[in-house]
Amino acid sequence: MQARMDAQRASVLNAAIELLAEQGYAGCSMAAVAAKAGIATGSMYQHFENKAELAVELFRTVCAREVAAVVEASQEGELVDRVVAVIETFAGRALKAPRLAYALLAEPVDPAVDEERLIFRRAFRDVFAERIAEAVDQGVLPPQDPHLTAAALVGAGAEALVGPLVDGAASPGTVPALVQFTLRALGGSA
């Protein structure tokens, strides 16, 4: 019985992720997710108390994947390349799935999701900060507060992407420009 419930919950989350990528949070009503998952709307309430709970779980699931991708991408290479990999991966993935990225970064939704956004911004900041601290410790980057620099880079990167995500105006130069901005902010060579 529990295995069946777990499988159904996974199916519901996968359906919700697809809808989020296509329509944003506005398209993720309990009824729409249920229909996409092939279950009755009432069955949704066996897994989620309400839409807000679904939205939070959806956000956590997708953002955890994004953080994992950034961590993985920033494991190899020269120290500065590891820092650059954070912004390249973050921005590159966002631009490949603009509707999904906008939903995660800025789409107005439940206040509980806004709280989760702060938690995940700190997670991205921490990845950046770890890579920056390594480069500073090895003398590759000038002395700086890695957490402050990282927070500024996460905020700037997210803000720089919101406009292109909304209006579809991202140019092929968006990611290289963010890399150049990041290197300048770090005190490295552009």
From TrEMBL:
Keywords: DNA-binding. Pfam families: TetR_N (PF00440). Residues 29-48 bind DNA. Residues 6-66 form the HTH tetR-type domain. It comes from the Bacteria. GO terms for molecular function: DNA-binding transcription factor activity; transcription cis-regulatory region binding. This is DNA-binding transcriptional regulator, AcrR family. It comes from Amycolatopsis xylanica. The lineage of its organism: Bacteria, Bacillati, Actinomycetota, Actinomycetes, Pseudonocardiales.
